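Assess this one:
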Amino acid sequence: MRKVICINEGWDFTKEGVTEKVNLPHTWNAVDGQTDKSYYRGKCSYKKTVGKFDGQVILEVNGANTRAEIFVNGISVTEHTNGYSIFRTDITSFLHKDENTIEITVDNSPDELLYPQVADFTFYGGLYRDVNIICELPETHFSLLDKSKNGVYITPQNSGDVYIKSFIEGPAHEITKEFEISDMNGKTVAKVSQNATEYIAKLHVDAPTLWNGVENPYLYTLTARLIKNGEVIDETSDKFGFREFYFDAEKGFFLNGNHLKLKGVSRHQDREFMGNALTEKEHKEDIDIICELGANSIRLAHYQHDEKFYAECDRRGLLVWAEIPVISSFSKKKQPQARLMLEELIRQNYNHPSIYCWGVENEISIASPSRSLFSGINELNTIAKKLDSTRPTTCAQLTFSPITSKLNYITDILGYNHYFGWYVQTPDQINVWLDEFHQTNPQIKLGISEYGAEGITTLHSKDPVQGDYSEEYQAIFHEKYIEAINKRDWLWGSYVWNMFDFGSAVRNEGGVKGRNNKGLVTIDRKIKKDAFWLYKAYWSDEKFVHITGERFVDRPLGEQEIKVYSNCDKIKLTVNGKEQTLEGDKIFKFTVEITEGENVITAKCGKLKHEIKINGTNEENPAYSLGDSNDSFVRNWFETSDKIEEDRLSLNDNLGTIVNHPEIQKIMKSQAGRTFTVPSVLGKISLKPIVKIAEKTKNGKKYMDLANQYLQSIRKE
């Protein structure tokens, strides 16, 4: 019988000639990947001495970013070029009798052949997930080298029928396969045997209990065995659930025949000064926080996550959007690796009932679309459908991608990433865009795959405005979006960007280096921002009250608004002994008088209570604002390229050319209700390149990168 031995302890890690002892999981970018745009990207080595093992020996690496090569006793065994998946290799013939050296080199250097290379997150290098030895394997065993989890693929139907596709490695002579299904009490509910040469088996479970999301994530266990001469020689098991789902362009998402709005958050796999080297403990803590929020779905961005995390989503009933990092800039050179990543994602995670779709690209049109882009994404979509016909495919487009883009008609369902009210325009524009898109494409099954605004817990404002990075503006932004999402039943779901702040070494904004601060919770998981409590008010059944602005301690004197988020229907607010009561829904706004010195503010609903203390003062706290510093304006993570696509608009074009372009006219009409022309009174200024005008205006340079990026997404007529 197979044995799995974890070998995480005691590796010799060498970086730039310096060696130290480390335990796995490990990344060399835990610190610089969250603080320094020039974080280390290169090749490092992990080396470990192991003893002898019996039978066939497989080395299993659960995550090595990005390019990995395995050496056993100095001999190269295999390479792997997907930094986010499990890979295995047979090392039996390379082992000595007693003592053996395993070395794994890992390289996260920029590489034009590999995804991801341009994206809004840190590409942490390292052996950041478990490494195992699988040994004592019999000559014949369920497949370990076919890019799958265990060589067994489970396809259940709500009727109770369960189809099993299984593959073995080794001779099939005199071998029998046996499949057994047990319920959560361990009771056998179905069992069947077949010849080892048969690939398909069918079982039936009478009146199965359905896996019904967070309401009842019921899991069955399939145990697969190989039997020879009456003896079990190999065994593997996996959890699965009976569930069916479909999407309707007008009515949204349905799970087991019942409508369910997907209330989702996105998640990156890193933590403060841990990078991506997380253990099962951190994965479970993340899910605990997500479940506390009341979410029922997660978009696991933008790559394959730890198998442990998918398994925990199965157990907690969270519906998962799983995807590969074909992101930002398409390259035909990277297509072979993209195919590999997609195949490994699907084969390794096929059995998880939590996964409802496969994502084949994210914001791939940020860079100018190449001629091979559409055929490349089409190919990935076809591969996903071939590998798994039971789940829909999806992709995530950026706002700048036209609503009639050819990319929108490739996958089964579609997401759009929107930041109206942060990078561009105002939050209310999301309503205009959604209605226009649905009217233009009534057949498309649309969700919002990203939306968010930066919220830094040290920045505050009595009068928050777009782009001030304050915790207060972030909350207002999300108030607008959740209202827009909730009133459109045809919108099948949405994903807050992001659940947690995360490392993005390319960023330096809002006074914080190396981080994207759009999380509802800080990167160390210690502070739940006000926006967290807004979503809990809308999504959670757990009753609570929360006064916003708890960290906004120093406030101006006089009359001002105190806001409470709660899923109760009546809130009593007490300020310095004076009481007010409001009935409402989720957001309660009280007008109160702030006096000099300490003000005690208490919100109550029955026995529920939240109290904060604020300091009334005429002196503004300078720590609450970035002022006129270079960090006090919104930047996107991408920068303007030195290369300008001449067949597209840019800041090098004059005012008349830009304003009179049909796409620009369309945007202005949606904002102001009418079109515009450049007045003749402007004369020669209308012939000047915009870049020249912007350079001479106050703060003009600040917004040039973002404006140019947007203009480069529009082809000239």
